[in-house]
Specification:
Layout lengths: L4 H24 L5 E2 L1 H9 L11 E5 H14 L4 E4 L12 E12 L6 E15 L3 H20 L2 H4 L8 H14 L6 H12 L9 E3 L10 E3 L7 E5 L2 E5 L3 H9 L16 E6 L5
Parallel strand pairs: 2-5
Antiparallel strand pairs: 1-2, 3-4, 4-5, 4-10, 5-6, 6-7, 8-9
Helix pairs in contact: 2-8, 4-7
């Protein structure tokens, strides 16, 4: 079930409001952040949302990310809030969602349908060691730790409708058989993964990574590409992107200016189930 044009417009409008709120909090508290992933791609290629996308991603150096978690309570009114593994035992990801509690959606992309509130993803950026052997060891540990977080909550974490190569589809079928109906301690796995992610500081390393994302190590690159950030337009409003945004995008997507085939232009299978806008 893909989002229809009317629902997509509502989701994008509310997500843009959340992005503006997030930007305001970061500027007010001198916090670093960058548009990342599909949101950065949309800003560069479309000057806003990718037309079929219902997602907003921003990334923050871990130090700024943790400070954001501390200051957000006093910055947000009752219509808005954050959900992370630090304030919600039911959180199933190593990132933070900034939510608008006035609009709920159902995520149809996983086996277990999940009711959520419209959100933007706030992703921590961590470091990788410069030494090749140490980096290889750490990346291997990250890979298996992240995979375990998904297996412990297979029916909630794996997007079964996402297009993948044949070997990965086989692995998912096997994973569903082995882990789909098992009750496992996903929170313990998430906290262990979180500790591993934080092992190397963003500020002390030359190579940084967003390994929380679903695209593996493609969002791993020299910290210098991020720099101090620069202004970038998104839906006619100014936000902050990497200084070397083209290098970041090429690293993730290759020829990022080329549109994907029509059959691949799909969002996240979200359905709006009610809208009760709160007047604040």
């Amino acid at each position: 079930m893909n989002v229809n044009n009317s629902s997509l417009g509502i989701l994008q409008e509310k997500e843009l409001e959340l992005l503006e709120l997030f930007h305001h909090i970061c500027i007010s508290n001198n916090l670093r952040y960058y548009l990342i992933g599909g949101t950065l791609l949309g800003a560069v290629r479309h000057k806003g949302f990718i037309p079929w996308d219902d997602d907003v991603d921003v990334a923050m150096p871990r130090k700024d990310y943790e400070k954001f978690l501390k200051v957000s309570d006093k910055e947000l009114n009752s219509q808005f809030g954050i959900i992370s593994i630090y304030n919600n035992n039911k959180c199933r990801q190593n990132l933070t969602k900034l939510c608008n509690f006035s609009l709920a959606v159902i995520d149809h992309s996983t086996v277990k349908k999940q009711k959520q509130y419209v959100w933007i993803d706030i992703i921590p950026l961590d470091g990788l060691p410069d030494n090749k052997i140490a980096k290889c060891i750490h990346m291997t540990r990250l890979f298996y730790s992240r995979m375990w977080t998904q297996l412990t909550q297979f029916n909630y974490a794996v997007d079964i409708k996402r297009k993948r190569k044949f070997p990965m589809n086989i692995a998912i079928v096997i994973g569903k058989i082995l882990f789909g109906n098992r009750k496992m301690n996903y929170r313990k796995a998430l906290l262990k993964f979180e500790k591993l992610l934080k092992q190397y500081s963003f500020d002390d390393c030359n190579i940084v990574t967003n390994y929380v994302a679903s695209i593996g190590f493609r969002e791993t690159f020299p910290k210098a590409w991020l720099g101090k950030g620069k202004k970038i337009l998104f839906e006619g409003k100014q936000f902050v992107g990497p200084e070397c945004e083209k290098s970041v995008l090429q690293n993730i997507y290759g020829n990022y200016m080329e549109l994907p085939p029509i059959e691949e232009r799909i969002g996240h299978n979200l359905e709006i189930i009610y809208e009760d806008i709160i007047n604040v």
